């Protein structure tokens, strides 16, 4: 029965989401690193039934059972996102590897599943940390680049089957990280490091390799459109809190755009038909 599989996938992903929530809370705070789950406010160790992703949050009403301090709603949403990410990854990218039946495809499926789990953690931490602190954690941006390069290395090694030879797309994909990061790198350089953050450049670089050139261009365009739209809405709705000089974290838009493009396989400007 598929339902059991989906429930298992959902809670596995949600557990990863819960992990992301903990990382974001504790990142750069050394004293918090040790020990199991605890309330951030009263430092009480949590019982097992208070640590079930999604469900605990709902049953505890988003509060600590003892001190009644509110637990940030972002924890609930990261866990939900983890669950949905796991199911979508399996359905869209992993299923065929696991159902194909050969040992090689099974091994590839397991490696891909690990990469997707890592990717979710990296996306989750960068998204939420940037949203909270307006800073892209460099270690996680570098991890994203490593994951992207792993995908690119696999494609480059198997170029004959994937591209059918050393085609234009092979070369574009080989330099994709540089090409996708270039516009922001130029803005960064010519604006004296003010207009965009260096972290955003690293994120684009990693995603350029993760998504490849065609989808990378779509991610680039979509992230700018979403970013512009959200910024305009914030300027309009909250003119006191946001003005033209307020720094708005940009990495969340890049990650949102990547997830939309990857899962929907969106080639926004029809680049694949233009190139071939
Ligand atoms: Zn508490």
- Count the E strands: 0
Number of helices: 11
Secondary-structure element pattern, one letter each: HHHHHHHHHHH
Please compute the radius of gyration using only Cα atoms: 20 Å
Mean pLDDT: 91
How would a crystallographer describe the biggest sheet? none
As a percent range, the share of strand residues is under 5%
Helix content: over 70%
By secondary-structure content and strand pairing, the structural class works out as mainly alpha
What would your notes on this structure say?
70% of the residues lie in helices and 0% in strands. The protein has eleven helices and no strands. The longest helix has 40 residues. The N and C termini lie far apart (42 Å). The relative contact order is 0.09. The structure holds zinc ion (ZN).
Describe how the helices and strands are arranged:
Layout: H1 2-26, H2 55-59, H3 73-99, H4 103-133, H5 138-157, H6 159-163, H7 168-174, H8 176-190, H9 198-237, H10 251-264, H11 271-275
Helix pairs in contact: 1-3, 1-4, 3-4, 4-5, 4-10, 5-9, 7-9, 8-9, 9-10
This protein binds zinc ion.
Residues 39, 41-42, 44, 64, 66-67, 69 line the site of zinc ion.
């Amino acid at each position: 029965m598929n339902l059991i599989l989906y429930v298992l996938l959902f809670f596995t992903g949600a557990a990863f989401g819960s992990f992301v929530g903990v990382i974001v809370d504790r990142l750069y705070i050394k004293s918090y690193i040790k020990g199991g789950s605890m309330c951030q406010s009263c430092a009480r160790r949590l019982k097992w039934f208070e640590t079930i992703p999604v469900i605990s949050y709902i049953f505890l009403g988003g509060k600590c059972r003892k001190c009644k301090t509110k637990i940030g709603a972002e924890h609930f949403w990261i866990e939900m996102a983890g669950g949905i990410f796991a199911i979508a990854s399996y359905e869209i990218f992993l299923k065929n590897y696991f159902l194909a039946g050969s040992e090689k495809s099974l091994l590839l499926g397991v490696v891909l599943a690990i990469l997707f789990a890592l990717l979710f953690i990296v996306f989750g931490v960068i998204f939420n940390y940037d949203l909270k602190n307006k800073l892209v954690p460099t270690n996680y941006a570098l991890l994203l680049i490593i994951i992207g390069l792993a995908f690119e290395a696999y494609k480059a090694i198997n170029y004959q089957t994937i591209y059918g030879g050393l085609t234009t797309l092979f070369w574009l994909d080989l330099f994709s990280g540089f090409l996708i990061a270039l516009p922001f790198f130029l803005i960064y350089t010519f604006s004296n490091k003010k207009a965009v953050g260096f972290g955003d450049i690293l994120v684009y670089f990693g995603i350029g390799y993760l998504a490849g050139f065609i989808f990378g261009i779509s991610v680039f365009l979509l992230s700018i459109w979403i970013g512009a739209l959200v910024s305009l809405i914030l300027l309009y709705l909250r003119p006191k809190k946001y003005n033209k000089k307020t720094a708005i974290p940009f990495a969340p838009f890049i990650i949102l755009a990547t997830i939309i493009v990857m899962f929907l396989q969106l080639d926004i400007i029809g680049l694949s038909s233009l190139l071939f």
